[in-house]
Structures are given as C-alpha cells and as structure tokens.
C-alpha cells in the first residue's frame, strides 16, 4: 500500500488545505472543468456528491510521483511538526484548468495541476517523532516534500486508526469470482517481485478463498484446534503449502485450503511443528519444543481434524511426509 507524504503546512498549502481538505467540494461546482468520463467516475466513487481535492505542481519529480497516487493509497497531510489528517485517494487526474480555478498558481506561475480526489478525511494529531516510528522512517526524516512510501504493514493502518478503510476494501474484494481466482493462480509467479498488479491478483486469490470458506459467516472453526473464532482471526490456510502446489492443485480450491486460527495453529502447521496424520493432530519429533510450546501442542495433540476428508487426504499426506519426517 502506498502512503503519500503530503506537506500542507506552508503558506499556500495551508490555504489549499483549508479550502479543499478541511472542507468538501461539491462535484457539481467543478463539473465545468471535468470531462464526461471523469464526471461519471467521480459520481460513482463519491455517491454523496462531494469530494476532497489536492494537487501538486509539475515541478521536480512531482509528475512521476503522481503516477503512484493510485486508488486506495493513503495521503498523509503533514505540517507544524504533526500529521494533521489522512485521506484515502479515490481518483487522480491531470487538469491545470481545474487546479488554477481552485487554487490559482504558485509564485512561478504553475498551477497545482497533478490532482487527486479523496474520501474519508480523518483528522489526526500525531507528532513527527511518533509518525516516523509508525512509518519506519529515519529519525531525521524531514516531511518537507511530497513523497511516496510503500509499506505492507497492517500495524500502520491500526496505529493511524485506518482499519475501517481497509475493511471497506475487503468488502469490495468479496466480489472476487472463481474466474478471478483462476486468473490469479495462473498469473501469480512467486519468483517475481510484487508490483501493483500482482498484489491485486494476490488479494483476489485470498479473498476468493476466504469467501469460499467463510461466506458471510461471523465465526468459524479452526481446522486444527477445533476452536471457534471470529473469521478475522482465521486464515484460509493451504493444507499443502501454496508454493509447493502445481497450478492444478491450487485450482482445487475446494480441497486445498481449510480455516486455521491465527492463535497459533497457522504458524505451527506452516512451520511444521504439527501436522495431520490419518485425520489427527500430531507433533513433530524433530522440532525443538520449549515448555510453552509443549503446553500448547499437548492441548491439541490427537484432536480430530474437522476438515480432513478422502478428497483432501493427499494434501495432508504431503504435509505429513515433507514437514514431519524430514
Ligand atoms: Zn487453532
């Protein structure tokens, strides 16, 4: 996920901030400067008819940075040594006329023409010292210019109170179809670095698997410890590790995954501290068990795996053979 550091403390920026971030702008008031397709898009993305707007000039590397202001990036408005507010980017356009109409031009005559629209503006009050820690920036990071920071740490969203934003995104992903899943499975190559497209594919894959396992359920049972948990504490865990599966095995979604809890079972299974043998939980004799780990594993040892069946037996067998008897 991209976080856009957006300084808003300078003289001109402060007035833009007051005009188009602290206060929403009616889409109808700016319609004269927008193309038909931009208008349709904004109406769809902002059904309440109002938008928040920001823009940067063409100076320096701004235009290439603007290319990273993709939907669902989080803009972080900074100034007076604090994070002042955050917002979620919905859409971006290059539109000098609209920019000039909204904010005029800077001292060199440039409008803030590389623009983006936002929703969910949230007032924040976090000092730079803490903000640097949250974002994993150096202790002297200056927050002086527009910068794009790529981070995939869900803790950042939690610390900035932005989880609700993410929940909305997950809802959108709930629409992932079996076709989306097949495309994702076929095109995702774990040996290549994640870029924007592959991270979308990866989200689609996960969301389809979650939809298959959980539907609209609020709670479900862990396949290993058998305990009931809210579905947000369960993952769609591959019985045979995803990285070892052939395409056909990955496409066998009805058999290749089961719900596994994040309370310990997911990691223990993935790292081979436990496995399922003939439908029952077993521990691994080769692993080093601390007392705490022994206590955990003893409680689940020999439990019957709820999701074990003849049709997924081969995947469990792979795990048992390759993870345990090494
Ligand atoms: Zn569990």
Descriptive key words:
single chain, 326 residues, alpha+beta, ph1033 like fold, 2 domains, two-stranded antiparallel ribbon, 13 strands, binds zinc ion
Explain the overall architecture.
The protein has two domains: 2-171, Roll (ph1033 like fold), CATH 3.10.590; 175-324, no CATH class. Strand 4 and strand 5 form a beta hairpin. The chain contains 15 helices and 13 strands. Helix 9 crosses helix 10 (196-214). Helices cover 40% and strands 23% of the residues. The model is unreliable at 167-173 (pLDDT under 50). The protein is elongated and about 75 Å long. The protein is of the alpha+beta class and 326 residues long. The strands form four sheets. Strands 2-3-6-5-4-1-7 form a seven-stranded mixed β-sheet. Strands 8-9 form a two-stranded antiparallel ribbon. It binds zinc ion.
Q: What's a quick, concise take on this entry?
A:
This is HNH endonuclease. By secondary structure, this protein is of the alpha+beta class.
The largest beta-sheet arranges its strands as: 2-3-6-5-4-1-7
* Radius of gyration using CA atoms only: 24 Å
Helix vs. strand class: alpha+beta
Q: Approximately how much beta-strand content do the residues carry?
A: 15-25%
The helix content, as a percent range, equals 25-40%
Order of helices and strands: EHEHHEHEEHEHEHHHHEEEHHEHEEHH
Bound molecules: zinc ion
Calculate the terminal CA-CA distance, rounded to whole Å.
38 Å
CATH fold label of the largest domain: ph1033 like fold
Sheet of most strands = 7 strands, mixed
Q: Per CATH, which architecture of the largest domain?
A: Roll
How many separate structural domains?
Answer: 2
User: What are the segments in which pLDDT stays under 50 over at least 5 consecutive residues?
Assistant: 167-173
């Amino acid at each position: 996920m991209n976080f856009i550091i957006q300084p808003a403390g300078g003289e001109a920026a402060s007035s833009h901030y007051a005009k188009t971030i602290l206060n929403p702008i009616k889409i109808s008031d700016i319609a004269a400067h927008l193309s038909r397709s931009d208008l349709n898009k904004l109406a769809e993305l902002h059904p309440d008819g109002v938008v928040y707007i920001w823009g940067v000039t063409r100076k320096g590397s701004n235009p290439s940075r603007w290319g990273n202001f993709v939907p669902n990036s989080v803009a972080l408005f900074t100034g007076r040594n604090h994070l002042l507010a955050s917002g979620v980017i919905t859409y971006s356009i290059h539109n000098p006329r609209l920019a000039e109409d909204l904010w005029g031009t800077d001292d060199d005559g440039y409008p803030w023409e590389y623009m983006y629209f936002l929703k969910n503006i949230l007032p924040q009050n976090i000092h730079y010292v803490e903000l640097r820690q949250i974002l994993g920036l150096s202790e002297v990071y200056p927050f002086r210019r527009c910068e794009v920071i790529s981070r995939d740490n869900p803790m950042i969203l939690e610390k900035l109170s932005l989880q609700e934003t993410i929940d909305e995104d997950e809802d959108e992903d709930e629409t992932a179809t079996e076709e989306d899943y097949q495309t994702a499975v076929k095109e995702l190559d774990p040996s290549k670095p994640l870029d924007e497209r592959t991270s979308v594919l990866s989200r689609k894959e996960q969301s389809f698997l979650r939809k298959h396992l959980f539907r609209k359920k609020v709670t479900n049972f862990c396949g290993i410890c058998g305990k009931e948990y809210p579905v947000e504490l369960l993952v769609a865990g591959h019985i045979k590790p995803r990285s070892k599966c052939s395409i056909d095995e990955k496409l066998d979604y009805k058999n290749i995954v089961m719900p596994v809890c994040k309370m310990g079972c997911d990691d223990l299974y993935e790292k081979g501290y436990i496995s399922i043998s003939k439908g029952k939980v077993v521990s691994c004799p080769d692993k080093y068990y601390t007392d705490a780990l022994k206590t955990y594993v003893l409680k689940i040892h020999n439990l019957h795996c709820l999701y074990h069946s003849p049709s997924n037996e081969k995947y469990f067998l792979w795990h048992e053979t390759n993870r345990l008897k090494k």
